[in-house]
Design brief:
The complex is a heterodimer. Chain A is mainly β. Chain A has strands spanning 14-22, 27-32, 35-40, 52-56, 59-63. In chain A, β4 (52-56) and β5 (59-63) form a beta hairpin. In chain A, 46% of the residues are buried. Chain B has helices at residues 10-23, 37-45, 48-51, 65-68, 71-81, 104-109, 120-129, 146-159, 173-182, 195-201, 207-213, 224-239, 259-268, 299-302, 318-322, 354-360, 363-366, and strands at residues 30-36, 56-63, 86-90, 113-116, 134-141, 164-170, 190-193, 217-219, 245-247, 269-271, 274-277, 281-284, 288-290. Classes of the chains: A mainly beta, B alpha/beta.
């Protein structure tokens, strides 16, 4: 999910849309363009399908405001 | 591209540039530092400097985590990776960083089991799948990346996975900004604050810059219009005689940051008394190590590492680039002996490194006629 930026980056994360959530494992499958990835959602409360998350290094850092 | 085009409108960018030009005071030159390598990348990729009036100079800061790791730590990483029982996992760019005797990629070619991962959680999965091997994760990055290491450590402990450890090199941005402000080399007028670091730490940790040093800070996003608006907001503060911390990136960054992320970091890591940064030297309380409670997952406890301070190659001027004292193209080896394919210094390795950004987006020739002399 990082075609525009360095994946090692200290400061750039990417926005992705939640497709499914697994509460049992605190993970979500997110979509960014054509890419799907499983990420940890331990740090963001109340994640639901359709939410947009700021993701970095396999972890959601923030839920973005609805557009 | 959905959700992106609205922040890349050429018409809006030109309008903003006109408004920025309207704030320039006659005879004044403005030096603004973009702290974050992600901003540097956007600035060159989208030609932002070409939109700005010549009086406004953007200076590139130390916010590229690959760039600031000193060579000695890279040597330590390779020493761990070369152990026959170890699977060494790392973000991709760190594989190419030159150390004293080659890179992690060279070590891999010679037989070390070095694997690229996108997340420390991938490294933990590899540990789960290889219970007879020791899996080490080379943890680098600023506060944006630190939460992922923290979550991984918490999950490793919860799952009782003990064949996993972290070689911690996480750094913190605020002490680096302080080191730059204390440096006599550079006079800055304001800072474009790091957007995603601030998602984690919030905007309060920058207040001392505005209050004690009188420099505006505007936390900004990473799209072209974000950066232009950040520049506009800084110049507006300067024009009005203010120095405050403002948040341009309100669609993402909250005042208080992400408290859950800060809690996870605090639970797993603590400040080091000092840490060496490439180009900036030793900066007190500028990096994190694992807490004693996580010693079982601490690669520095588990393995003996050389821990030797290694000087940068003499030809390399990454240090001056990282401090914003010189532009990438003013380095003696830029684009000749040092290229993204054969980097000498770290700033040419990462796509967020100022040298690689200049090189990749063709600023080499276009900027020469316009750059002011170095400070």
């Amino acid at each position: 999910m990082s075609e525009d930026h360095c994946i090692t980056c200290g400061d750039v994360a990417v926005e992705a849309e939640v497709v499914t959530v697994s509460g049992a494992t605190a993970t979500a499958t997110v979509r960014h363009g054509d890419t799907h990835e499983e990420i940890a959602v331990d740090l963001v409360a109340g994640v639901r399908a359709g939410d947009r998350l700021l993701c970095h290094a396999g972890v959601a850092l923030e839920k973005l405001e609805p557009r | 591209m959905k959700y992106v085009d609205e922040y890349r409108s050429a018409e809006d960018a030109e309008r903003l540039a006109e408004r920025i030009a309207g704030l320039v005071e006659p005879g004044r030159h403005y030096k603004l530092m973009e702290v974050c390598g992600g901003h540097t990348h956007t600035i060159y990729k989208h030609g932002i400097e070409d939109l700005l009036p010549p009086e406004v100079e953007l200076v590139h800061g130390p916010g590229c985590p690959v760039c600031v790791i000193p060579m000695g730590r890279q040597d330590d990483a390779i020493a761990i990776a070369e152990r026959p029982d170890v699977i060494f996992t790392t973000f991709g760019d760190m594989m190419r960083v030159p150390a004293t005797h080659g890179s992690l990629l060279d070590a891999k070619a010679l037989g070390a089991d070095v694997r690229m991962v996108y997340s420390p959680l991938d490294a933990l999965r590899i540990a789960r799948e290889n219970p007879d091997r020791q899996v080490v994760f080379f943890a680098i990055g600023f506060e944006t990346t630190t939460p992922s290491t923290a979550i991984t450590l918490l999950r490793a402990r919860a799952a009782g996975i003990i064949n996993f450890s972290v070689f911690a090199n996480h750094v913190t941005i605020v002490p680096a900004i302080k080191a730059i402000l204390d440096s006599p080399d550079l006079r800055l007028d304001g800072f474009i604050g790091p957007g995603h670091v601030s998602t984690v730490i919030g905007v309060r940790p920058y207040r001392w810059i505005a209050q004690d040093h009188g420099k505006p800070v505007v936390v900004s996003g990473f799209e072209p219009l974000d950066i232009l608006q950040g520049v506009y907001m800084i110049l507006r503060q300067l024009r009005e005689g203010r120095s405050e911390v403002e948040n341009q990136y309100t669609r993402v960054v909250r005042e208080e940051g992400n408290l859950a992320a800060l809690k996870a970091i605090g639970e797993t890591m603590q400040l080091r008394s000092t840490f060496e940064w490439r180009g900036l030297g030793f900066i007190s309380q500028s990096a994190l190590k694992l807490r004693p409670e996580f010693a079982e997952w601490d690669a520095e406890v588990r393995y003996e590492v050389p821990g030797v301070r290694v000087a940068d190659p003499k030809a390399c001027q990454c240090g001056e680039v990282l401090k914003g004292v010189i532009k990438p193209w003013q380095c003696k080896v830029f684009g000749t002996a040092c290229t993204p394919d054969r980097p000498i210094g770290t700033c040419m390795v990462s796509s967020e490194g100022a040298c690689a950004a200049y090189y990749n987006f063709g600023r080499l020739t276009r900027r020469r006629g316009r750059e002011p002399a170095p400070a």
